[in-house]
Amino acid sequence: MLSPAVCRMKVYAPRLASSALPGQFLIVIPEDHGERIPLTVSDYDPEAGTVTIVTQRIGVSTGEICSLGVGDRFSDVVGPLGQPSEFVGKTAEELAGERFIFIAGGIGAAPVYPQVKYLHALGAHVEVIIGAKTSGLIICREEMSAVCDALHICTDDGSEGFGGMVTGLLEKLVLEDGKRYTRAVAIGPMVMMKFASLTARKLGIPITVSLNTLMVDGTGMCGACRVTVGGRTRFACVEGPEFDGYEVDFDEAMRRQTMYRVQEHDAEVEYEHECRIGRTPSGQGVDRDGERRNA
Length: 295
Known about the structure:
The chain has 295 residues and is of the alpha/beta class. It has helices at 14-19, 60-66, 92-95, 109-121, 141-145, 166-176, 190-203, 236-239, 250-257, 261-276, and strands at 6-12, 25-29, 37-40, 43-45, 50-56, 76-81, 99-105, 125-132, 150-155, 162-163, 183-187, 207-210, 226-229, 232-235, 242-244. Helix 6 (166-176) runs parallel beside helix 7 (190-203) and helix 7 (190-203) runs antiparallel to helix 9 (250-257).
């Protein structure tokens, strides 16, 4: 447990581990009648045959994932899905002049880690901002420190590092500390990525964002991850999840995230009732569509 509501686990899936790349995701189904939960691959080890996932408990199905123990198994795991990060496949020579700044909000530090690790192995200059509400909610600190040139901590309440928003810290690094970045990558809450993109535009830094929180089915067939990018409808799960932050219609994406709040609440109430009366919730007949958007 990285925090009271955030769980990190290694999943033995050799074929997935041997083909995963930074930026991609997988789908897990916790139990036979459960829903499909998309989770970004936060690390992979081809030799051990494992992939690492980080899950935040925000509802019924994510609670089921976090309750699993060593030796348990998912009903189903599939991946890797989605497109890898745009820098995957570039050589060290091609990345030599690049200076990356990654902006990780909350649990977004988990999917940021494999990207930073990949670039670090190629000798690229990479700095990372990890932002959280308070110091106790910062995750992946030690791992990130080992694979980046500089780690900057930012907390909303000022309990550690820069006190304020990640956008304020980005402005400070560029305008006050004289840092120069050629590319930014932001992963985290939708509203954070929106304002990170606005700030990056103001500073003249191209920025990539990951829209993994919109995904449901993971194959493009359900249409739940539709998003407008550059005036065109795109599907985050098959064409993304990474897109140009300047071009994403974040207001539309945030409206889409709130569409199933009533169903999410009803599912949580039913789940808690089943647990109180000593029955194992099967998930059958329960509409839990919306929850997976935030997994």
